[in-house]
Design a protein that fits this description.
By secondary structure, this protein is of the alpha+beta class. The chain has one domain. 20% of the residues lie in helices and 31% in strands. It contains two helices and five strands. A three-stranded antiparallel beta sheet has the order 1-5-4, with no helix packed on it. Strands 2-3 form a two-stranded antiparallel ribbon.
């Protein structure tokens, strides 16, 4: 596990996996997020840069819906 620290500035943070500046609210739903420290100065997040992020949720009903409606035409 490679934990990386990124500092929050103006509600934005640099995402090393996406290699772009993102809104910090997008980090809250990310599976790589390990820590959000908003009490520090400056505030920062800690991410597991090597962890794979699932494209789909864990909900089996969502998976069924996704594959039913997003199948490629043959």
């Amino acid at each position: 596990m490679t934990a990386t620290r990124a500092f929050v500035s103006g509600g934005h943070v640099y995402c090393k996996s996406r290699q772009e500046d993102v809104d910090v609210s997008e980090c809250l739903g990310c599976g790589r997020l390990r820590e959000l420290n908003d009490q520090a100065s400056p505030p920062y997040i800690v991410c597991d840069a090597d962890a794979p992020v699932a494209l789909f949720g864990e909900d089996p009903a969502f998976l069924e819906w996704w594959f039913r409606h997003r199948r490629r035409a043959r």
